[in-house]
Amino acid sequence: RGARRFLAASRLFMGTSATVMVDQCTQTRARVRRTREAGRIIRVKRRREFWYGTARSVLRPLLRLAFRWRMEGLDNIPPSGGVIVACNHISVLDPFAHALFVDSAGRKVRMLGKAEVFRVFGVGRILRGARQIPVQRGSADASRALEPAVDALRFGEAVAIYPEGTVTHNEDLTLMAGRTGVARLALATGAPVICCAVWGTHACLPRRRKARWRPGLVIAVRAGTPVDLSQFAGKPMDAQTLQGATTAVMEDLSALVADVRLSWKPPRWARLWPEVENWRPSGSEPGGDGGRKPRS
To answer: Would you give the DSSP letter of residue 236?
Structure first.
């Protein structure tokens, strides 16, 4: 009786039986292993995704109602094929903002997240059901830690990654040094890297500061053009190549974030700390075109 109930539940939520589902997973993994070295993109028939669809149905209208969204560069997200979306990280709200942006571009997003989050009761089940990707940080073998993301890209998925690895610790919310994970994914799969900058989430849920929210808060998200990594193609994946590719991605992402934050006007009720309020791009004078004078 228990086995029959399990099979019935699997048909309801996954659209297939548990036996067939396990069989498909086994065949797919074997196919991934056979084609990983060849670097070919694998396309398989999609199953219905109960948890992804449920989360999308609940979160999308809530986010649309809670904030005013200014999205730019949606056309820069390829409509199909594997793509890496490299994002800045200034708030715990960022994954929702970036996921909504990629979803608005017509793609299902697979986000790389800390493995610790997947261990939270209930949350881990939803994230795994929505095919999000856990990453074991501090792993001795960095390449094996990113294998699920490599497989997703070869399946033709859109994979979002935070090159900094966590919310920025810089008080002015500038980017920290990037880790080489984004470079490993790009060079291993040949997938294009699209930088995606978000600004405004820090006014609602800042790191280690009091949360504040009022209706009408504008959150700006912008995607840039693909990062040029052609000079690293075909080179051995050594430390120098990985660092060079990472630097190229971080430079493009940093410039994109600077443009977005200059065009964003903080609401009157948002009490931003001095490092953010008085920030200006390097090379500009205080109070000049690139700076923002502190409010009195």
So the answer is: -
